[in-house]
Amino acid sequence: MTIRRRFAMAMAVYGTLAAAAIVLAPLVGSTTIDLGRVFDFSTPFSENVDAQIFFVARLPRTLAGALVGAALASAGVVFQGLLRNPLATPFTLGVSAGAALGAMLAITFDWTLGIAGLSAVPAAAFLGATGAVSIVFALARARHRGLSTDVLLLAGVTLNAFFSALILMVQYFADFADSYRTLRWLMGDLDVSSYQPLLSALPLLVVAFAAFAWLARPLNLLSMGADSAETRGLEVASAQRRAFFSASLATGAAVSVGGPIGFIGIIVPHLVRLMVGSDHRVVLPASALFGAAFLVGCDVLARTLLAPVELPVGVITALIGGPFFLWLLVRKQ
Amino acid sequence: MLRAADVQFSYDTLAQPVLRRVSVTVPAGGFVGLLGPNGSGKTTLLRCLAGTLRPTAGRVTLDDVDLGTLSRPAIARRMAVVPQETRLAFDFSVLEVAVMGRYPHLGAFEIEGPADLALAREALAATGTAHLEQRAFTTLSGGEKQRVIIAAALAQIGGTRAAAGTILLLDEPTAALDLAYQLEIASLLRDLQRRVPISIVVSTHDLNFAAGLCRTLVLLRDGEVLADGATDDVLTPGRIKALYGVEADVQRHADAGHLVVVPLRRAKGGPAA
Questions:
Q1: E strand or H helix at B170
Q2: Does the CB of A234 have a partner CB in chain B at under 8 Å?
Q3: For chain A, which end, N or C, has fewer CB atoms within 10 Å of the first or last residue's CB respectively?
């Protein structure tokens, strides 16, 4: 089957899946709502309870899940291609630990943004992610011409551990309420009840996705090794830089919205590859769409499994993802 | 014509240069072998010729144009490289690997067309791997992998319709292969050059592989050219001793039709200085 056909089929299948998830998810919840009444515009919005639940409580959360899922899944694909390691995740290189450190500081020290006393947690998380990414990149560049993927990996893993230690140290002195909020944040949660976080993250994600579109073919070449990619006409160093920064941007933006929701970035790309093969021109967009559907689905489970108690969605993805990851490790080739 | 003129290269500004004033000419339609012991600079020279390393002094030119002034895709359309071994990070099919050779001919968002697929398939057929088209590359044997990579390289420079003056560079292509596959790769390269007017440069440790294939040889020792010229003139017991510190007998083999090197013993006192 030609690449065009495979691309079209993957888009049709995964696009339908994502669209269905986004449309159906807001209808599911502890209160049953009726889609007909939601779009009944003869009733004013202030009196239309169904429309309020749909548009104010559930739709932002569903859209957040779709965006975060798409970002984490496609960032996972890019990191796996960049590091030439199918077990890499968006959090392997320290992005999530940096974000967690930022979020924890904002929570513990009650930082607010200048206007209207908005919480600074997402912004601090994004800044933390940026800091971690810069450190890892500087280290990986210091030793070699070009970008050493070995140093990237080791620096990322070390930074993850180091930032976690910093978080624990501050937590040791923090009061109970702040510690609890930090813990909740670290679980990864889509408890979004306005469109504001989406609007902040959207421009960043648009930039990242545009870069991903350009990266699909270079990632195919990079999977043969940097030298082979170069002799096939790829400017390897600049492609690696673009991959690293765009995937970090997507991860940072996603984490600032939903916290470090684990395993999406590894489960989704692997399931997609099992179905569509390895060509990144299909794997990347298919993973973004399937990631959106997958996280929205997990969030429905998180909201309904122990209703009226809402579980953090990160717990659900980890409960599914942990065993899946181990299966990947021991799976016969 | 690919030419290295007085090429010098060091990986580290403080370290001894790996290549010192090396000059090599690869004429159109030439078949050049690079020989030398480990650490003599074969691979480094090959990388300089391929443009993936920039010489610290001297220059490498492709038809009198400095490689440093050409873009990566422009170089890739004229020159392809076959590494010693290729390990894929993901499961691509054999056809997908061959088609990747066509990437330097496509625009940033362009998708390979029927012509590119046809070229890739022809190249697979030319290397006897057409029947493996749908197999996953990672499941192939070492010899099959190497033939597929040669096919991808061939597709990159125009396939079986490659223009004269396109170049195939191979870095120890048989180092990881057993005897049968070594012979197979040798006859494949010989066949290929008979059918397509490409130039081939191959670095190798295998003297008999080089003697059977290459029209000219370049002997490298400690980053310098010890000798170069026609294979029959260059490959002498004296030079082999100077290169490897090994006493060897060199004879023309009646059946094989080329020189054959039989190593006898290590020369006393190691490589002649």
A1: strand B167-171
A2: yes
A3: C
For A266-304, the pLDDT digits (tens) are 999 999 998 999 999 999 999 999 999 999 999 999 988
In this predicted model, which residue has the larger pLDDT, B105 or A197?
A: B105
B99 near B112, Cβ under 8 Å?
yes
Q: How many Cβ pairs closer than 8 A exist between chain A and B?
A: 81
Task: Express each pLDDT in A59-111 by its tens digit.
Answer: 999 999 999 999 999 999 999 999 998 888 999 888 888 998 998 888 888 77
d(CA B247, CA B257): 22
Say what the pTM is: 0.91
Q: Distance between CA A233 and CA B110 in Å, rounded?
A: 15
Low-confidence ranges of chain B (pLDDT < 70): 269-273
Asked if A231's CB is within 8 angstroms of B81's CB, the reply is yes
Cβ of residue B29 closer than 8 Å to a chain A Cβ: no
Alpha carbon A254 to chain centroid, angstroms: 5
- Which residues from A are below 8 Å from B73, CB to CB? 233
Structure tokens at A315: 């717990």
CA–CA distance, A307 with A330 (Å, rounded to integer): 35
> What does residue B126 show for φ and ψ, rounded to 5 degrees?
-65, -25
ipTM for the predicted complex? 0.90
Distances (CA, A) of A174 to A181, A187, B263: 11, 18, 75
Query: CB-CB: which of A85, A217, A234 is closest to B89?
Result: A85
User: Using CA atoms, how far apart are residues A289 and A212, in angstroms rounded to an integer?
Assistant: 14
Which residue in B has a C-alpha nearest to residue A83's C-alpha?
Answer: B89
A146 pLDDT tier (thresholds 50, 70, 90): low
Residues 118-147 of B with CB under 8 A from A: 138
